[in-house]
């Protein structure tokens, strides 16, 4: 394995730490801390969701792929609206759904076909763990509702 896949894998998995730590914190900390933890997780999830379509935007602009350009903008604006309107506890499952939607788009659109195999596998792993962590966090009572 060359250095790039190793570094990408390590960075990707390091990015999962807040997703994995949040449900543990929500389950073990007292109720007085749940809104804070849920809010931090919602903010972090929003940051990740905003970052990924930003990458698409650059690819779509350079390769002149208007559908992906529009999709990246729609996902970002949907995430922004969700973060603004929904309470943190309700944003968490919405964020999980957006992560899943982004993975589906990446797996199905031709713009993303040249992805290296390690990256495609890594995206599945990261999306599944992050999405499940968001759903578990949202299911914990009084988690930012």
Q: Quick gist of this model?
A:
The chain is mainly α and 145 residues long. The chain has six helices and no strands.
Q: What does this entry look like structurally?
A:
This protein is mostly helical and 145 residues long. It has one domain. The chain is 84% helix and 0% strand. It contains 6 helices and no strands. The protein has helices at residues 3-15, 17-28, 31-63, 66-85, 88-108, 117-139. Helix 2 runs antiparallel to helix 3 (31-63), helix 2 (17-28) packs parallel to helix 6 and helix 3 (31-63) runs antiparallel to helix 4 (66-85). The longest helix is centred in the N-terminal third of the chain and has 33 residues, at 31-63. The termini are far apart. The mean pLDDT is 89.
How many beta-strand runs?
0
Q: Number of helical runs?
A: 6
Report the C-alpha radius of gyration, rounded.
16 Å
Low-confidence stretches: none
Strand content: under 5%
Shape: globular
Helix fraction?
over 70%
Q: Return the structural class.
A: mainly alpha
What separation lies between the terminal Cα atoms?
44 Å
Q: How many domains would you count in the coordinates? A: 1
Biggest sheet character: none
Q: Would you tell me the overall average pLDDT?
A: 89
Task: Set out the fold topology.
Layout: H1 3-15, H2 17-28, H3 31-63, H4 66-85, H5 88-108, H6 117-139
């Amino acid at each position: 394995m060359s250095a790039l896949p190793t570094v990408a894998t390590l960075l990707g998995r390091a990015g999962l730490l807040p997703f994995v730590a949040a449900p543990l914190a929500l389950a073990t900390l007292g109720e007085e801390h749940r809104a804070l933890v849920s809010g931090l997780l919602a903010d972090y999830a929003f940051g990740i969701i905003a970052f990924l379509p930003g990458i698409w935007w650059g690819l779509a602009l350079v390769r002149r792929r208007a559908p992906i350009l529009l999709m990246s903008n729609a996902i970002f604006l949907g995430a922004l609206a969700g973060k603004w309107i929904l309470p943190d506890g309700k944003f968490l499952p919405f964020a999980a759904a957006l992560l899943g939607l982004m993975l589906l788009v990446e797996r199905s659109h031709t713009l993303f076909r040249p992805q290296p195999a390690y990256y495609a596998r890594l995206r599945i792993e990261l999306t599944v763990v992050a999405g499940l962590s968001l759903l578990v966090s949202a299911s914990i009572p009084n988690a930012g509702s």
